[in-house]
Amino acid sequence: MRVAVLALQGAFIEHEQMLQELGVETFEVRQLSDWQQPKDALIIPGGESTTQVRLLSSLGLLHPIRQAILEGLPVFGTCAGLILLAKEEDGQPRQGLCTMDIDVCRNAYGRQLGSFNATGHVSGIGEHLPMTFIRAPYIHRTLSSDVEILSEVDGHIVAVRQGHQLATAFHPELTTDHHLHQYFIQHIIPSAA
Ligand code: GLN
């Protein structure tokens, strides 16, 4: 199994480390020629979604990545990655990959409470999982019944799955807990193969 990790900006190294600890081969996507390598899945890391969209667009990566996801490539987006996957932001269409039927609220917790740790239940994945939120979004609402809500923290949706797409508002890669990555590798990637 070989997983592409979008490495334009943000916390991509931590994802690579976590996948490698699980015995999965990774490679970094920085330009179109990287993207054209064979792959079984894609990880979109946290960082700054506005910058990531701008870079994806100027590098000619936005359209091919969106197309691959629409054609069934498994994807896991964390934080800014979740924002990139969302079709809407505050009820308005977004610029981005826009492959998931979710409406997001960016920087949802305000500046003071922007970063915090929590523990939560993620449906079908685990109890008391550590969750690191950094200027995190949450999901206002799901836009179709294809989206499965996996976790809520303080009444807000923070993890979802839509078929071969997984997204979390928090950063599992910044903890030592491998549950989310393991779930992606064991349940989502094989189901799309
Ligand atoms: N606040 C960032 C954004 O809007 C996301 C933060 C993160 O990925 N940790 O893109």
Q: Which radius of gyration do the C-alpha atoms yield? A: 15 Å
Q: How far apart lie the N and C ends?
A: 11 Å
Strand arrangement in the largest pleated sheet:
2-1-3-4-13-12-11
SSE series: EHEHEHHEHEEEEEEEEEH
Number of domains: 1
Say which molecules are bound, naming each kind only once.
glutamine
The H-level CATH homologous superfamily, spelled out, is Class I glutamine amidotransferase (GATase) domain
Are there runs of 5+ residues with pLDDT below 50, and where?
A: none
**The level-1 CATH class:** Alpha Beta
Structural class: alpha/beta
Question: How would you briefly describe this protein structure?
Answer:
The protein has 193 residues and is of the alpha/beta class. Helix content is 27%, strand content 36%. The protein has one domain: Class I glutamine amidotransferase (GATase) domain (Rossmann fold), CATH 3.40.50.880.
